[in-house]
Amino acid sequence: DGSASPETGGIGLKPAISKVLFTGDFFRPSAATFRPTQHENIRWLAQILRVPVEMATGLPGREIVWDDRWVNQSTFETATMRSLYGCAWLEPSIQSWARLYGLRTLPDTIERILERIFAESLVIGFELPPVLMHFFLRREIPFVDCALSPVRFMDDLLISVSTSAKMASDVLRSYQVPVAMQKLVAGIISGHSAKAFPKPPRPNSLLILLQTRFDKAVIVQDRFVAIEDYLEDLQRVAKSYSNILIKTHPLELNSRSFELLQKAIPGAVKTDENFYRLISHPNVTGVAALSSSCLHEATIFGKRQHALMPRVNFSKSAIGHEQADVGDAILAP
User: Does residue 5 have a pLDDT over 60?
Assistant: First the structure.
């Protein structure tokens, strides 16, 4: 019932739990227009976890999403979401989402709405934003956050899981996929990538990775940053390398940042080569980016990591909770 003490194996939080709610960053709109973006991710997570969670808890589960298709029984639709942004004195836009993302408190009107929705629930989230996690902690609403692990070269998806309850976090760590296993798989991938490399990188190459413009990974102090904001830091890093490769993000191939970097770093060239083939090659010795998860993968392949943004930590959640990279054990009750 959610009131068990840590000694009896419960989550140690006082409010009773009567339901399981699957949610995520339902505040996040598209960069192009003010429309929902996370409803499908939330429903994906709910679909794969609903059965084991119901088997383990006996509690009903449902999704809390922003979705304009009424047949999907959505919680919020666009007019409501515009009003919620207005309650926070924000224009409904992707730039406003960056301001909302990390707030530690919300206006009373929004807090009361969220309290009515999430009271007496166990929340299971897909990449919960700090603003919601802070709300849950204040209201003693237990939550489990599930994010795609930065390690994406394994034979199946790994999920980075964190939780509001310390005892649950300790249990989750026992299911963590060992780093040693990740390194073994990286070695196998490196072996495959060693074949048929007609234009290998030159010795002592730095690979610079560009990222999408509107993503939670590039929010600093309620605004989006770009790699040109850290140009001097990147130039200092580049001095330690003999050759510079720049790889644009597959969703933003015509990047303005690429043109700026080419002018700022003489001799830098663009590469369209596969990321894993590049970091498998011994001539690539370092990888730089704002905060890309590829930086973490590069360290597993034995490369130097240069995260340009401050306080980049791939082992903790957005509010500093320890994460455990879990494989298909997450599907077990």
Answer: no
The token pair at 67 is 């979705």
d(CA 193, CA 204): 18
Instruction: Render pLDDT for 147-195 as a digit per residue (tens, 0 to 9).
Output: 999 999 999 899 999 999 988 888 988 999 999 999 999 999 998 877 7
- At what angle are helices 130-138 and 94-101 packed, to 10 degrees? 40
Q: Residue holding tokens 């899981």?
A: 161
Query: Phi and psi dihedrals of 279, rounded to 5?
Result: -75, -10
pTM for this prediction = 0.91
Separation between Cα atoms, residue 333 and residue 331, nearest integer Å: 7
DSSP strands (E only) in the chain: 19-24, 61-63, 121-126, 143-148, 159-163, 205-209, 219-220, 223-224, 243-247, 269-270, 284-289, 304-307, 324-326
Where residue 73 falls (left for φ over 0; alpha for ψ -120 to 50; beta otherwise) is: left
